Amino acid sequence: EMRTGLAKIRPVTPLELTRLAAWRKGKLYFENQPLGAVVEELSRYTDAQILIEDETLRRLPIGGTFQANSQGVDALLDMLHEGLEVRVRRDGDARIYIEGMAGRR
């Protein structure tokens, strides 16, 4: 059934357009999004459970374009590990723990 008056029309932001264009190419684009949200979106493309227990880490702003598949997940984990020195620990294939900065122990 048609219901009018509920749709809100608003301008699309450049960020949304970039994300949409990336999504059409099978990629996910993030710009200063909290790691928690990035992981939530990317975890749809892997069978592994990705766990972040550190609240500060969940809020870490992340940017980048990742493939919407398991390689995208691996690319994110590599970026965290190599680029940001975040500890990534794999528990077999089932779980991946993102554990805080490597240098802070």
Strand content: 25-35%
Q: What oligomeric state do the depicted chains represent? A: single chain
Query: Which stretches are low in confidence, meaning pLDDT under 50 for 5 or more residues running?
Result: none
Determine the number of helices (DSSP H or I, runs of at least 4 residues): 4
* Major sheet summary line: 3 strands, mixed
Given the helix and strand composition, which structural class is it?
A: alpha+beta
Rg on CA atoms, Å:
16 Å
User: How many β-strand runs?
Assistant: 5
- The whole-number mean of residue pLDDT values reads 89
End-to-end CA span: 59 Å
Form type: elongated
Strand arrangement in the largest pleated sheet: 2-5-4
Order of helices and strands: HEHEHEHEE
Q: How helix-rich are the residues, as a percent range?
A: 25-40%
What features would you describe in this structure?
The chain is an alpha+beta fold and 105 residues long. It is 35% helix and 30% strand. The chain contains 4 helices and 5 strands; from the N terminus they run αβαβαβαββ. Strands 2-5-4 form a 3-stranded mixed sheet. The protein has a two-stranded antiparallel sheet with strand order 1-3. A hairpin with a 3-residue loop joins strand 4 and strand 5. The model has no long low-confidence stretch (mean pLDDT 89).
